[in-house]
Amino acid sequence: MKAVVYCRVSTDKETQETSLIRQKQELVKLAAEYQLTVVACIQEQESGYSIDRDGIFKMLEIFSQKGQIVY
């Protein structure tokens, strides 16, 4: 099965940058444990308040591609 990794922090502070790296590492590791193939890794430094975020739209685009993701 395929998976998309989505990592997000709410600010662009330097400490948040390491959080993005940790999130990606942990989620890629988790995907491997479940034998999932990561087809995309989306990272954002945006507030979660708004759903109008490029990363969300990129995920939806990937999901809409027939046969790309099973969820």
From TrEMBL:
Residues forming coiled coils: none
GO molecular function: DNA binding; DNA strand exchange activity
Annotated Resolvase/invertase-type recombinase catalytic domain residues: 2-71
Any Pfam family the entry gives: Resolvase
Family: Belongs to the site-specific recombinase resolvase family.
Name used for this protein in its record: Resolvase/invertase-type recombinase catalytic domain-containing protein
